[in-house]
Every structure is written in C-alpha cells, then in structure tokens.
Amino acid sequence: MGDIISIILLGIVEGVTEFLPVSSTGHLILATKLLGYDAARWQVFNIVIQLGAILAIVVLYWRTFLAVAMGLARRDPVSLRFVRNILVAFIPAAILGLAIHKQIEALLGNAVVVSIALVVGGIAIIAVERLAPKSDIVGVADIPLGKVVGIGCLQCLAMVPGVSRSGATILGALALGVERRTAAEFSFFLAIPTMLGATTLELVKNRHELLSGQGVGLGAIGLGFVVAFIVALLVVKWFVGVVTRYGFVPFAWYRIIAGTAAFVWLMTI
C-alpha cells in the first residue's frame, strides 16, 4: 500500500510539473529523495511516466493535430511549417541526448544540482520577462526557422535536471520575440517528440531490468502514467490561463523559494 501511495504521489508531481517551467524531472528527483527511495531504481519510472503527461497534450489539442494532419494531406503551407518547426526544434536535443546520455544519467540522481538549477532558473525567468523584446510572433507555424533552431538549442539546457525543458523552451521563445501563449504551446508540442525519444531510449536500455522484475515494475509505471495523464489534463489549461494573464514570474518565485528550501534541507541531512 505504501508503494502505491508513493507511485500516485509521484504521478501527481509529474502531471502538475511537466508543462510548468519548474522542472518535472527535478521535482521527481527531489520527491524520490524525500521518500527515501534509491534514485537509480526509480530513474526509468520517473522518465517513462512523463509520457502520461504528454498524452494529455494530444487529447487537449486533438483539434489542432487533426487540422495539421488534414493540412499535410493537402500540402497546406501553414501545416507544413507547423510540423517543420516542431521537428527542427527537436533535432538539437536528439543529437546531444544520444551523444552525452551517460553524462546526463549521472546527474539524474543529484538532488543538489536540482536545487541550484531551480534557483538559477527562477532568476533567469525574471530577467527574461523584464528584458525580452516585444512579442510579435503569434502562432507556432509563424515562428521563423532561425528562431526555431535557437529554441531547439536552448531546450538542450534542460538536460541538466532542475533546469526545466518547458522553462528552457518557453524562455528561449520569449527572448526571441514569441508571444507568451504561443511560446507555451510550442513548448507543449515540442515535448511530444522529445519525450517520446527520451522514453524510447530509456526503455530500450533498461528492457532487461524491466522484464526481470528488478527496479520499478511495469505495473507501477502504468499506474504512474495514468495518474500523470489525468493530472496534466487538469493543469495545462489552468497554466495557459495564468501565463496569459500574469506571465511567468509567479513560477520564477516558486522556483527560487522551492530551490532554496531544497538546498537547505539537503545540506542538513
């Protein structure tokens, strides 16, 4: 029963934080540490359940994806640019992730790195919100190719746990003149190939461990997946509303406070 409650709690943490600029991976690492679990044993679980949150985006934006698919069939320029932008932004993380995946894995159990990255990222959000140029790009398909490449490169910063994939892509988009809502939605859509790639790599690498019953089992991963999916469904629309009305600064202050508290706690245990 204790493990089931922990799995549900971790699923909730993932669903709440995946699309907020606060680092879902960082929060899962801190939650795992707080629960006293072996970070290496739960590493696959923490990565794979992110697909539950990603599925929530597919469900919430199904009309957008359907319209793009129909547009591709007609070779509609807007649909073609939409898909091009997502794929181009995905490429830098795919290449770098394959090249340094061992170094990335070494950081995934380091809660101190997470706490520091949370604080630094919070400060960066405040700076970008104050210094970013006027937002004049509205619509994912309308983001110029050069800016798409820049956003994709900045997404690579999220390989450091605690930085936040959504935070890096959203801040990059804002700094390059993309309107807030469009920046958030571009981050949502970019998460689909990025997390699919990361999860597939993790499953292939750890397939023997999963099938042998070592580590966290498939049943636990399935439950965490479902919980993350349901929670993300509820969080995403709320997040878009908050961003449209208040911007990203509230999340910056949360990062600074949470990161500082986590660092102090980690230094005392």
Description:
It comes from Sphingomonas glacialis. The chain crosses the membrane at residues 6-30, 42-62, 82-100, 107-128, 186-204, 216-240, 252-268. This protein is an all-alpha fold. Helix content is 78%, strand content 0%. The protein has helices at residues 2-17, 24-34, 43-48, 50-60, 62-73, 77-99, 101-107, 111-131, 145-155, 165-175, 180-205, 207-212, 218-246, 249-268. Helix 2 packs antiparallel against helix 8 and helix 6 packs across helix 11. The radius of gyration is 18 Å and the shape is globular. It starts with a helix and ends with a helix. The model has no long low-confidence stretch (mean pLDDT 88).
C-alpha termini separation? 26 Å
Largest sheet: none
Helical residue percent?
A: over 70%
Tally of individual helices: 14
* SS-based class: mainly alpha
- Low-confidence stretches are none
Reading the helices and strands in chain order gives HHHHHHHHHHHHHH
> What is the approximate shape?
globular
Q: Beta-strand percentage?
A: under 5%
What's the β-strand tally? Answer: 0
How are the elements arranged and paired?
Layout: H1 2-17, H2 24-34, H3 43-48, H4 50-60, H5 62-73, H6 77-99, H7 101-107, H8 111-131, H9 145-155, H10 165-175, H11 180-205, H12 207-212, H13 218-246, H14 249-268
Helix pairs in contact: 1-2, 1-13, 2-8, 4-11, 4-13, 5-6, 6-9, 6-11, 8-10, 8-14, 9-10, 10-11
